[in-house]
Amino acid sequence: MADGKPRLYIASIDDITSGKTTDIYFERTRYILEKKGLCNIKVRAEFHTYSLPKNYEWAVFAGLEEALKILEGKNVDVYSIPEGTLFKPIEPLMVIEGPYCEFAELETALLGVLRHETSIATKAARVKLLAWDKLVIFFGLRALHPAIAPMADRAAYIGGLDGVAGSLSSKYLGVEPKGTMPHALIIVVGDPVEAWKLFDEVLPKEIPRIALVDTFYDERLESLLAAETLREKLVAVRLDTPSSRRGSMRKIAEEVRWTLDLHGFSNVKIFISGGIDENSIIELRDVADGFGVGTSIAFPPSIDISMDIIEVERDGRWTPITKRGKWPGMKQLYRCSPLNDTIIKWGVEPVHKCGDGSKPKPLLEKIMEKGVVIKELPSIDEIRSYVLSQLSELRSSLESR
Fold this sequence. Notes:
This protein is 35% helix and 20% strand.
């Protein structure tokens, strides 16, 4: 606040794509290479993770579209697995090929995009896998800086969630936002019954009537009041009981379900939000019809993606070289089914076949040439469907063990 006025601390798109949001040592590295005439040395830099958070066996690759936007117009080629692919440690995710100085200062931004989106998408996929066929909506924007709201909604949706609550999702993602009502509406109106009536009276009919039922009174009482007020219009009640008053969320949900059924409202569903994580999904998935999940997805365990040079061009030939602890050389990732993968040296065909006799599928393909995207990118719904299909296969394989 140098001029005495408040401001938003947000980097511009130009700051990001020009490399200004970098760590200072990359600027210094580029300066040294320029001074010594070494800027045109071509390298291949691979993105990968060599470890996952505790109890994680896989992650969901996300953020590719934004990474390509950052690299657009640069003199580089990019090879990548499809966005939305489930992957394991050590597997190559993306490779940049070109003069190192073309992208040296972009490493920070690229890793930030890929790590953050992959972390959110992975957590979302884990939650969706555990929720069975129950509805899961992302409620996590209040836990994040507003500048990245569209990114977070995109990553959560890619991860397989059924919807997002962010109002800007329709503008940036083409995804219609979903939501219920806040406690603020009921508190300002002063009475839950009147608030539910106003919600029904004012808003378009296509918006589902889901009543928040824990503002002033017992959840069982408010649920019954909502059902008697809106009758056949009521789709669901939402339980958002704070932890300080909760006790057993499962017992509350069971009590609400019993009461609604007892009074002839078995058609009314139960939607639960407020501090939902993987453990609560497991505990509640057989008594809830849907979940609103926020902070646990917005602030997930980090998928530690890194970028390392794996080959350098010397005298017209690619020479495998990298830091210790990493696998040198350009690689291809072959897949038979989700997580049934083989890493093979680039340009070498696999000799093995999949269990069904088919050939393993190569996942890395050139997607950008000299800074221009050469392959049509999938829509957000296509990426989400791809993730869900892999989760379905993964679930089937786990159940058959």
